[in-house]
Amino acid sequence: MSQHNSPHIVVVGGGAGGLELVTRLGRMLGKSGKARITLIDRSATHVWKPLYHELATGVLNSNLDEVSFQGHAKNHHYRFVRGNMDRLDREQQVVHLAPLKNDEGKEVLPARSVNYDYLVMALGSVANDFGIDGVGEHCYFIDTAEQAEHFRQAMLDTFLQINDASSQQQRELAINIVGGGATGVELAAELTRASDMLHNYGYTDLEHSRLKIRLIEMAERILPPLSEKVSRTVHKELKELDVTVLTQTSVAKAQENGLTTKDGDFLEADLNVWAAGIKAPDFLTTLGLSTHAKSQAICVAQTMQSIDDERIFALGDCAACPQGEDKAVPPRAQAAHQQAKQMAQNFKRLLEGKSLQNFVFKDRGSLVSLADYDAVGKLMGGLARRGVFMEGIMARLAYASLYRMHQMTIHGFTRTVLTMIADSFNYYLKPRMKLH
Hints:
FAD/NAD(P)-binding domain, 3 domains
């Protein structure tokens, strides 16, 4: 079969799962011409989503860690199309893209369409505002790299105002973070770290004591999906960083200068960040595919095929994949990583005329980073059936290795080692924080 007539696999979404999938498919099928692989994403670059909290605080310089889709595609045997999917024609097997516009709203590319033989939806998830009044207008989100950069600039501007205030006007900088999951916890720690670093970079009036961070969680404890021991340890660490943790606290309304709780308390703040709950993008409910009532994720079988259309697949947070009776694959980065690996093998089997294998999630545990201060988590597998609790330097090394594993998947061993060497030089040659 010629490459021109080979099956066309289109992946929409270049997050961790989507990029790892096209990388594997490119190596397995694209290089040999057994299939044509196309990745569609609205952005020109990829940043690993678990690092967004570092991007939002400026600790991560996106110019150093982002991956150009165009350049990556050339090296890994797939095609990249930049665009935002706005419609699906299942009958004709066509993905329609909206006109591409620049930051000024000027049209760069007209509406286009991409034909497919097999389609994979890998659009990830976004924070869930639960329809609460004012959240969309008065809270920052960090669901995308662009949103993280937007918050970073607002944070720097606010820090600058606090630093330049006269001694008579000096006040605290208050930040509300709604959502006591991993994103909220890690952001709270990184903000503390950012204030310390800014103090060292000339923001001499920005004392640590003048930063007031509130972490607001609706449940009885932070990190509800994780073990109570991990939750308790992280709570203690945050208190030592002067982060105020409010549990069993629900937000009723968001305003420009703070949040109102359901109990009627007003939590004044300079910045509000919403990191509570997750759901698949609203757009998925318009495709004519069955979606989960709460998460809006595409309902798939264990083969990760849509229950409505066997030519359409979904992975990661935008897939509602069953895992035994009354259970589903959790929306976690490790699940997307495992699904990408399994799906690549399944496409190989599909083109060979073999049956697809069911996806079985293997929980490897969870780790939470508290910036440079600490890391806490629980690792699963091996001889320790109940898991091994970790904190301190070993947990920090294990957390750092997760990103290196992602880099190994999308770049290979040699490029990852070279990247690690380059990172070591940049640590000493460049500021440890993006200051502009």
